[in-house]
Amino acid sequence: MDTGLNRENILIEALPYIKRFHGSTIVIKFGGHIVIDEESIKNIIKDIILLKYVGMKPVIVHGGGPEITRVMNEMGIKPKSVDGLRITDEKTIEIARMVLIGNINTKIVSKIEKEGVKSIGLSGKDGKLFTARKKGKKKVEIEGEEKKIDLGYVGEIENVDPELIEIMTERSYIPVISPIAIGQTGISLNVNADSVAGRLAHELNARKLIMATNVDGVLKDPSDKSTLISELSIKESKSIIRDGTVEGGMIPKVKACINAVNKGVKKAHIINGEKNHSILLEIFTDEGIGTMIKKN
Amino acid sequence: MDTGLNRENILIEALPYIKRFHGSTIVIKFGGHIVIDEESIKNIIKDIILLKYVGMKPVIVHGGGPEITRVMNEMGIKPKSVDGLRITDEKTIEIARMVLIGNINTKIVSKIEKEGVKSIGLSGKDGKLFTARKKGKKKVEIEGEEKKIDLGYVGEIENVDPELIEIMTERSYIPVISPIAIGQTGISLNVNADSVAGRLAHELNARKLIMATNVDGVLKDPSDKSTLISELSIKESKSIIRDGTVEGGMIPKVKACINAVNKGVKKAHIINGEKNHSILLEIFTDEGIGTMIKKN
Amino acid sequence: MDTGLNRENILIEALPYIKRFHGSTIVIKFGGHIVIDEESIKNIIKDIILLKYVGMKPVIVHGGGPEITRVMNEMGIKPKSVDGLRITDEKTIEIARMVLIGNINTKIVSKIEKEGVKSIGLSGKDGKLFTARKKGKKKVEIEGEEKKIDLGYVGEIENVDPELIEIMTERSYIPVISPIAIGQTGISLNVNADSVAGRLAHELNARKLIMATNVDGVLKDPSDKSTLISELSIKESKSIIRDGTVEGGMIPKVKACINAVNKGVKKAHIINGEKNHSILLEIFTDEGIGTMIKKN
Amino acid sequence: MDTGLNRENILIEALPYIKRFHGSTIVIKFGGHIVIDEESIKNIIKDIILLKYVGMKPVIVHGGGPEITRVMNEMGIKPKSVDGLRITDEKTIEIARMVLIGNINTKIVSKIEKEGVKSIGLSGKDGKLFTARKKGKKKVEIEGEEKKIDLGYVGEIENVDPELIEIMTERSYIPVISPIAIGQTGISLNVNADSVAGRLAHELNARKLIMATNVDGVLKDPSDKSTLISELSIKESKSIIRDGTVEGGMIPKVKACINAVNKGVKKAHIINGEKNHSILLEIFTDEGIGTMIKKN
Amino acid sequence: MDTGLNRENILIEALPYIKRFHGSTIVIKFGGHIVIDEESIKNIIKDIILLKYVGMKPVIVHGGGPEITRVMNEMGIKPKSVDGLRITDEKTIEIARMVLIGNINTKIVSKIEKEGVKSIGLSGKDGKLFTARKKGKKKVEIEGEEKKIDLGYVGEIENVDPELIEIMTERSYIPVISPIAIGQTGISLNVNADSVAGRLAHELNARKLIMATNVDGVLKDPSDKSTLISELSIKESKSIIRDGTVEGGMIPKVKACINAVNKGVKKAHIINGEKNHSILLEIFTDEGIGTMIKKN
Amino acid sequence: MDTGLNRENILIEALPYIKRFHGSTIVIKFGGHIVIDEESIKNIIKDIILLKYVGMKPVIVHGGGPEITRVMNEMGIKPKSVDGLRITDEKTIEIARMVLIGNINTKIVSKIEKEGVKSIGLSGKDGKLFTARKKGKKKVEIEGEEKKIDLGYVGEIENVDPELIEIMTERSYIPVISPIAIGQTGISLNVNADSVAGRLAHELNARKLIMATNVDGVLKDPSDKSTLISELSIKESKSIIRDGTVEGGMIPKVKACINAVNKGVKKAHIINGEKNHSILLEIFTDEGIGTMIKKN
């Protein structure tokens, strides 16, 4: 009975947070590492369903790098690269599309449906949810000579039409979105999942953007977990990108957060999705557990 | 951080209950003892607001005996009675109406509004929410002689038109209802608040009826709290009324529960509203803390 | 048959007025004198129901001074005053609330419902219909010395949210409003019923504001009924307040009319609500029977 | 001022009738005699507009015999007849259509619009409001020999689709309907205006059917106005058709009333439309002024 | 089978045109010559029904000069004229109204309904679709003397309220409109059908205005069909009116086209409505068959 | 110009078919052979878009056998089989899901969007569009011994909830559906695309079910195209399955047609989707080009 009473107190303590985010759209992005870990994906979906039940409108964007690599390996296809730059050729985009839309997205939707909540899988192609243009060639200097390399079927988001997501969230579906865009001529283009999440958060007037990664947040010293930065202004965020504190895969995440917050999303969060209930902790406590980025 | 993690686990444990009652109407009745205790009323309202935020539609019915008595005393009016039977004369019904609608109801609505949730005070008169007919004269035997005594402005519910409540819950208001009915000729009639709650639970197709009293539930031995009966079927409930286990003010409560459950309300609960968060405990745990009445 | 024919002619003569006010909101305020007179209240309600049936949207605001005094007397409570200024202490506001909301409002709603028209009782607390701030202390000079006196639980309207009234009039209910506002901290504040009526007329874009009093209108010489002023511009209204022609309880009425007309209400009327069908006479004849205040 | 007070009393006396018919559809048919009399048509339209403003939904069906005859005369066309039976040949139906739809209907609609109320002219063709089948040949005996005579473009109502009328009354238009139906092959057929009114009253679930004629109602002795029958049951109505009390143009009127009442219209009335405000008198008084036909 | 395959190819070729005009309002005006020719009217209606079925919203405006003249002749009435100017006296407007609304409009509506499509006949009077003011007197010089001649019941469009057309097209009706307007005092006024079509095209934000006449379009040399002008800018259109290339009945058509295009209608077309399927040809081919007027 | 005139005549000839199917749902299934042939898929999509534009609601179900085989080969995976029965193991269902949902479905949706029409890709998982249960083990006799073989992740449709399709077709999207169902535990199950099409046609109250295959229809002698059967009743269809005329992949197609027609779909068609515009030919001509199955 004792624990029971505690339980109720905790529910009551959650009330102010529930009130604050009631009716708000929350865009949650999680990457491939989480998708392939059965325990992590199960936990994160439970959290998201809770958000839905207490009145928020969660929208999921997922990545899937590790899965794509796994399938390519299985098919005996070696990732192409020119001078160290990865190239997305026709074969690769086909596999990416199959893995992201056919495999990962479907899996997430199925898991949500299994919990009794309606869900729908979408990608940029559906109702032209987001279109992209092929990225221009990239200049690289090789042996003193400048060369332009075509990165292939990789795109940058051009236009977003959130109608379809709104139709579905209004009717209590949780939309799950794969980062495959449609290009002018109908071709598929791979776009960065972080940018998709950031841009959708902005276009949906989301209250929050949550990037669930496999690290604890932005660290001053990536090798030392105790150097987690709890809060960043836009200005500070830009500065730690410039000075190299942020590097690698964290860069597009921080950039997407900056863009979203600049366009009106109240707060963006980078958290460790592999930690149990990290989403709830970030939303239902003041201190949070990751890095929070806000305007000032 | 430790407690934080516990917190999230508890929220997640609440999920199945939240799911189960999502969108359901829950009728909650609390009596005068709770209304006059600042701490109890504050706590019970917090619980009810939480129910609202996690997707239920709470409807409040309140009593007010002690307050009516207090005001009558202040006005120097002595409660009338004939042969031990309390008589509600014109003066008394006027005071009951003033206290219930003008004082108690207003106070509850104000407390809810203060928490940022919309609320509206109603009684039987508004949109003919519920009408009553005057109770017939009561036969009593006095000194071997049978007499009929007119109990005055006391009524039994005749007709219920829940339209107004539905208009308001649809628009996210919490309705607070005083047990004053309108009679055929437009007169006010005092009706038992427990019956009002039971009848409304039935007419609104409520999922649950919760009677928040000042005892822990139905006790086998009223003087011994350890004899709490956790669960009763309708049959058992009727039997313990007949055999006298249930007595006094508990009788109309159990009867209202029986009627509601008979008409389709899934479960009815008699709990101690003075215990902190007893409503949440009853709803969000399997074991509950009071007496639960269900069909079989 | 003869009278019958006359009847039809009169209905036809009413047509232009019916057309003009079709679909318009009409705010009608009547005071405590009318409420306690069975004949007057019955007649005024009949008039208001007629307005509803010919397509207007009547909204009622009521006062209740005499009733409050009566109940206070019955309870043996003497109205407090400091240096002649009436003080609304905690006891007084409680009684005011009980009498206005619990007694008078309920009575009016019941009478309307009895006529087969749907009605609902409201006060400032319901859906935060109107909030008030406590009036500042009043400066008075006593024996050459300046003192500040706290008038107690008396407020001035701060914010009005007419949503609830609009929900109800759209669904053919006649709303009946008590002049009890909700303050910041959830406390009850007594506000002047004339100001409530004036402010609601403005916020509801009412076509007309009708003040049903117990005098014939604004009189040049209050002791001589033959000096009724039929029509006043805003400028004239202000001038007769300044020069003392208008005094006592008539001042807030004229001020409320001025404010409402200034904010877009077409016409405001001060009439004698105790005269039979004075509301209909004022609305359905060009000459009217009281004082009409308009912009120019 | 005196008459003013009377006026208000009369409005109040009209209240119960206004209540009773609020929201009801009232089908009013008037014939050609009224249409060509400027005074009569002006008055009858005023009455109908009043009905609309006090909340009823009037639907007008008109006839036009005298006008058709006038135009035929002007065009030098002699009404055809075979053995005394009038024949509607192609020329005649064309003129009927032009006069009814182009002239009379347009005139009525214009007069209503001039009063500031929206109106629309319709006939059976619009949205297939009502279709008809050509009447079969009529058997007549001439000089001992039986002959079959084709009456030409005359029809009997087959199917009614009231959608168009309902669209318009919902949007506050008064529909004005000419008795020209559309036949299977798209041809125009003249149908009896009384039957159209009766059938529409039934299909629209009208509360009342009013036949405004140029006589006072059903008379026991057509030559003696004092023999007016105030009330008839269906049984009585049928009997006075059989026994010849009702004759000529009154027969289809009474039959249409019988049919409408049989199909659920509460009451049907035959009144003198040339008498000032006879419609209002019939609706707003208990005694009425014409003949009322009801079920029993 | 061979032709069958061709058929499908042609349907597919129509697809871009169907897409382009999907959901667009198309105002089509045809004159009296077409109405009286059974073959032409049947064909033009088939075309219009096809437009409706492939997703456009056709609105028909018709004329009726030849029919009016025919009926006037039959009635032995000679068209009045003063000094060569035609005068529309009361008799004439009555006949115009009867012929246009009662005869021609009804006929068109019946033909559409016969094809299984819902249609409704309207004129300016219905819902005050369009009002007109009487044209001023016309100055003419006769024998060196200036005289002013009153042209009678002829009007110029003043105000258009397209609500009624929009109600009907939304519900899949094809509206058919007669060029009879309502004047201030409720009188009928004859207005030029070309102007009605042009003005409605503008007020309805039509995509196209099609004038179906009995000539092939605008000809450089009216006597030589081979001189058809396929395309005209507004500037060129004005110039060929000024220089006299366009004359007679073609002038109001070109002017209506100019006005409509100036107000936002994309393209206006003058085609030969007597040629089979000329409407479809003009809409479903790039080259068209008549004269097309566009902005530049 | 000549061909132009023909074109219009052909459009007009299509009118009766357009009318007949206006607003109807048409379920079209096409298999893997069509999907991989660029020309065929382009043509079939053009046809379907035309159906949409002339007012039908097309719903696409696709197969994808050849593509799945191709990808399996690329991945060096050999289709498993036990005693000649194909087994869908975990690897195989994963590839099927990726190919069907990620590759083929996406491709079809992209091609439709490219034509300017909104489309959305769905499978059984989305909103639990269709659920399936795993097929029971199959009994086979091997070397005189009876064995039960588990076919793996292959399912039979259990429940269909067409809500999502209806939401989308109402909003003018063309839904494209992959034959992957969701099982009880959230697993993916491969279901026969022909059954999916048949069942959806039934649940959506489709007017037509069109099976676009790579043969001309049902042939009496599969080796002789001239033996095409144009029309079959349900009875005849069942008989030619029993007598072996129909064999192989044609069996589930004919069975799906039988089931759909039995449940209320008017007509089912088996056509050659590789023939140009075969869908249009089947819909817009009376004779059709394939095999049509109807009730009797």
Automatic annotation (TrEMBL), chains A, B, C, D, E, F:
It is an enzyme of class 2 (transferase). Substrate binds at G64, G65, R86, N190. Pathway: Amino-acid biosynthesis; L-arginine biosynthesis; N(2)-acetyl-L-ornithine from L-glutamate: step 2/4. It is found in: Cytoplasm. It holds the Pfam family AA_kinase. SUPFAM superfamilies: Carbamate kinase-like (SSF53633). GO terms for molecular function: acetylglutamate kinase activity; ATP binding. Residues 25-272 form the Aspartate/glutamate/uridylate kinase domain. GO terms for biological process: L-arginine biosynthetic process via ornithine. The record marks K29, K253 as: Transition state stabilizer. Keywords: Amino-acid biosynthesis, Arginine biosynthesis, ATP-binding, Cytoplasm, Kinase, Nucleotide-binding, Transferase. It comes from the Archaea. InterPro entries: AceGlu_kinase-like_sf (IPR036393), AcgluKinase_fam (IPR004662), ArgB (IPR037528), Asp/Glu/Uridylate_kinase (IPR001048), Glu/AcGlu_kinase (IPR001057), NAGK-C (IPR041727). The keyword Mitochondrion does not apply. Its EC number is 2.7.2.8. One of its GO terms (cellular component) is cytoplasm. It catalyses: N-acetyl-L-glutamate + ATP = N-acetyl-L-glutamyl 5-phosphate + ADP. The keyword Ligase does not apply. Catalyzes the ATP-dependent phosphorylation of N-acetyl-L-glutamate. Belongs to the acetylglutamate kinase family. ArgB subfamily. This is Acetylglutamate kinase. It comes from Methanohalarchaeum thermophilum. The gene is argB.
